[in-house]
Amino acid sequence: MLRATRTIARPSVTIARRFVGGQVRPEGSVAQSSGFSKKEKAHEDQYVHDKEVEKLRKLRATIDEAKKELAEVDAGLSAQEAKKP
Questions:
Q1: Tell me, what DSSP letter sits at residue 28?
Q2: Contacting residues for 36 by C-beta, under 8 A, at least 6 apart
Q3: How far apart are CA 76 and CA 39, in angstroms?
């Protein structure tokens, strides 16, 4: 027999299947591993060390400039004292 009705397509609902079981690694598990942590700490320590070395280099340059200025002022003062009768 032939049908006189028409079938209407219904949207199908699919449910996402969640796989439970086995070892589930939380987010950031790579960052929590000891090997990664040690490597990251080593990189951070090296970065901090490099920054401190650069700061020390700049401070030493500033100190050297200040010593030169002080020597010039000292020489000028000595010259002024020598000119006094």
A1: T
A2: 30
A3: 56
